[in-house]
TrEMBL record:
Organism annotation: Danaus chrysippus (African queen)
Taxonomy, superkingdom: Eukaryota
Protein family membership: Belongs to the tRNA(His) guanylyltransferase family.
Function according to Swiss-Prot or TrEMBL: Adds a GMP to the 5'-end of tRNA(His) after transcription and RNase P cleavage. This step is essential for proper recognition of the tRNA and for the fidelity of protein synthesis. Also functions as a guanyl-nucleotide exchange factor/GEF for the MFN1 and MFN2 mitofusins thereby regulating mitochondrial fusion. By regulating both mitochondrial dynamics and bioenergetic function, it contributes to cell survival following oxidative stress.
The entry's keywords: GTP-binding, Magnesium, Metal-binding, Nucleotide-binding, Nucleotidyltransferase, Transferase, tRNA processing
Binding-site residues for GTP, renumbered to this chain: D29, G30, K31, C32, F33, H34, S75, D76
Subunit organization: Homotetramer. Interacts with MFN1 and MFN2; functions as a guanyl-nucleotide exchange factor/GEF for MFN2 and also probably MFN1.
Reaction(s) catalysed (UniProt annotation): a 5'-end ribonucleotide-tRNA(His) + GTP + ATP + H2O = a 5'-end phospho-guanosine-ribonucleotide-tRNA(His) + AMP + 2 diphosphate + H(+)
Cofactor(s), names only, from the UniProt record: Mg(2+)
Cofactor note: Binds 2 magnesium ions per subunit.
Binding, Mg(2+) 1: D29, G30, D76
EC annotation from Swiss-Prot or TrEMBL: 2.7.7.79
Name of the protein in question: tRNA(His) guanylyltransferase
GO MF annotations in UniProt: GTP binding; magnesium ion binding; tRNA guanylyltransferase activity
């Protein structure tokens, strides 16, 4: 291709090649999602439709890029982890961040009706993104534990808050004041004594978020092993989980067998 006198402007581009031999984590967060949730009639404290849409949007990203090892999401956020030796787009930060964000956001819009039916999408959602490198397996595991711990803290608070508002007839400001300074045990006690709710009985997807990971499953008809992306809600805060799963982090081709239930997402793949 012939060069032009204007080509010098390319010299203003900065090199954003990421450090090699490190895990690349792209985390997306919904922008102003409290308002978005209210405008689209999300149920409180958790709307299973919204969570499933988030999961399916993330699933579409993993299907698109084999270089992605796994993804973890909760509420209005999702983290995508690229393989340690990923060389997609020559590890250019801007390329990786924008391609994940655009695929996820467009999928959220595209699959809206799949989960919300006749509920109209009134305006496009917006997700911001950040990219972080983690050099060691310990760092990456602690990152995922941190995000799941965040689920527990936020969901217990929200579950108690909305019980006080929707069932206890408190105003949001009164409920916020009631919960100020309370510990996890206090919130569990409020739920159980005042509303007869045992927080332990809440669905796992609410309490633990969703891990999307590449696994294998035996097809009952062909009896052959099929590679799938499984949506699971395992407890990543327990070290027992990582005894098996840490092998997959270091050796992505080592797929663990899926031993849980067949979710709708899994059924689509077999």
């Amino acid at each position: 291709m012939a060069k032009s006198s204007f080509e010098y402007v390319k010299t203003f581009e900065l090199d954003d090649t990421l450090l090699p031999n490190s895990w690349i984590v792209v985390r997306l967060d919904g922008k102003c999602f409290h308002k978005f949730a209210d405008d689209h009639n999300f149920k409180k404290p958790n709307d299973i439709r919204a969570l499933r849409l988030m999961n399916y949007s993330a699933y579409s990203v993993l299907k698109e890029f084999n270089e992605l090892l796994l993804a973890y999401g909760q509420s209005d956020e999702y983290s995508f982890i690229f393989k340690k030796d990923c060389n997609l787009y020559k590890r250019r930060a801007a390329k990786l961040l924008t391609i994940v964000n655009s695929k996820f956001t467009s999928s959220y819009v595209f699959y809206w009706r799949k989960f919300f039916g006749d509920e109209e999408l009134k305006y496009p959602p917006t997700f911001d993104g950040r990219l972080v490198l983690y050099p060691s397996q310990e760092n990456l595991i602690d990152y995922l534990k941190w995000r799941q711990a965040d689920v527990h803290i936020n969901n217990l608070y929200n579950t108690t808050f909305w019980a006080l508002v929707l069932k206890g007839n408190l105003t949001p400001s009164q409920a916020e004041k009631r919960l100020s300074g309370t510990l996890s045990a206090d919130k569990n006690e409020i739920l159980f004594k005042e509303f007869g709710e045992n927080y332990n009985n809440e669905p796992e997807i609410f309490k633990r978020g969703t891990l999307l990971t590449r696994k294998c499953i035996i097809d009952e008809e062909s009896k052959k092993s099929v590679k799938i992306i499984a949506d699971v809600h395992d407890d990543m805060l327990k070290n027992n989980f990582w005894k098996d799963f840490s092998v997959h982090l270091m050796k992505p081709k080592h797929l663990l067998p899926h031993e849980g239930s067949l979710t709708d997402m899994i059924r689509e793949q077999i």
